Amino acid sequence: MANQIDGKKISAQIKEELKERVTAMEAEGKKVTLAVIQVGKDPASSVYVGNKKKACAYIGIHSLSYELEEETSQEELLALIEELNGRKDVNGILVQLPLPSHIDENRVIRAIRPEKDVDGFHPESVGKLCIGQPGFVSCTPAGIIQLLKRSGIEIAGKECVVIGRSNIVGKPMALLLLRENATVTVAHSKTENLKEVTKRADILVVAVGKPKMITKEYIKEGAVVVDVGIHRNEENKLCGDVDYDDVWPVCSAVTPVPGGVGPMTIAMLMSNCVESAGGWFSGSEPV
Ligand code: NDP
């Protein structure tokens, strides 16, 4: 029977630690400021942006909000980023994705100065992760490392399988696990005999984007299962990429949806913001 990994509790702990850190920085005259840019009014994006601003307010990070019209041109957005890049009082810049189709996301990500790239999406940040230099790390995979470490789960030497190779989850996840000295396999849609591959995993991270695809047939007895997926089912309830009720009896620990990986993403974004203002935080050291 599995232990439930409590992402809500662990993210709350991290936010408390960050709040203390920000209070101490303020006493030294250092302020942490995040600029949040949203283009258009996509309802899901508005919820994410609202949650990020709420987390900033709780921790004591100042947030500057830029709500731009859907019709905003790429040039206008790039000009705003350039202005924020140059402002000494702005430590981090976050552009909520996805952007409207007339704007080139890669171009926008590249425009953010790497030292303000709190999402960790800039090619320089990704490159630093790849070669083991300190830099901002994509928040969801960074949060998963914290979930595992703070739940007392050993990573070094373990067989880890990541399903998914996206730039924001699968690939940085694999690199972080490698940095933690795991033996890492990345599976994707062209992987043959997926069940055989995933059954080798001591730690299985699932970022496949398919509701409840992973059942107990994919899991080795006693494995740790981390579910990154977020979906709404027919009853409008949240579920993950893993069939939680089915895998629960065979794994040793599992993350629920909601309340697993999701809350960690915002906590690690806050950690990156504090770091962007020069505040060292124990959760963000290069691993
Ligand atoms: P993507 O759709 O970008 O990537 C999905 C990956 O899964 C791809 O690499 C794809 O392979 C692979 N894949 C698809 N089908 C299969 C299959 N049948 N067998 C094996 N591999 C398969 O998704 P993301 O990485 O952006 O997100 C994954 C999930 O995590 C989504 O549910 C998303 O909503 C959620 N998410 C949650 C976050 C959180 O904070 N909790 C943050 C970010 C994402 P290929 O490359 O070959 O196409």
What can you see in these coordinates?
The protein is an alpha/beta fold and 287 residues long. 40% of the residues lie in helices and 15% in strands. Strands 1-11-8-7-5-6 form a 6-stranded parallel β-sheet. Helix 7 (170-179) links the parallel strand 5 and strand 6. The protein is globular, with a radius of gyration of 19 Å. 43% of the residues are buried. The model has no long low-confidence stretch (mean pLDDT 95). The structure holds NADPH dihydro-nicotinamide-adenine-dinucleotide phosphate. Residues 140, 163-166, 168-170, 187-191, 194, 207-210, 228-230, 241, 261-262, 265 line the site of NADPH dihydro-nicotinamide-adenine-dinucleotide phosphate.
Identify the notable features of this structure and list them briefly:
287 residues, alpha/beta, six-stranded parallel sheet, three-stranded parallel sheet, 10 helices, 11 strands, 40% helix, binds NADPH dihydro-nicotinamide-adenine-dinucleotide phosphate
Ordered list of secondary-structure elements with their pairings:
Layout: E1 3-4, H1 7-27, E2 33-39, H2 43-59, E3 62-68, H3 74-86, E4 92-95, H4 105-111, H5 123-131, H6 139-150, E5 159-163, H7 170-179, E6 183-187, H8 194-198, E7 203-206, E8 224-227, E9 231-232, E10 238-239, H9 244-247, E11 253-254, H10 261-276
Parallel strand pairs: 1-11, 2-3, 2-4, 5-6, 5-7, 7-8, 8-11
Antiparallel strand pairs: 9-10
Helix pairs in contact: 1-10, 2-10, 6-7, 6-10
Residues 140, 163-166, 168-170, 187-191, 194, 207-210, 228-230, 241, 261-262, 265 line the site of NADPH dihydro-nicotinamide-adenine-dinucleotide phosphate.
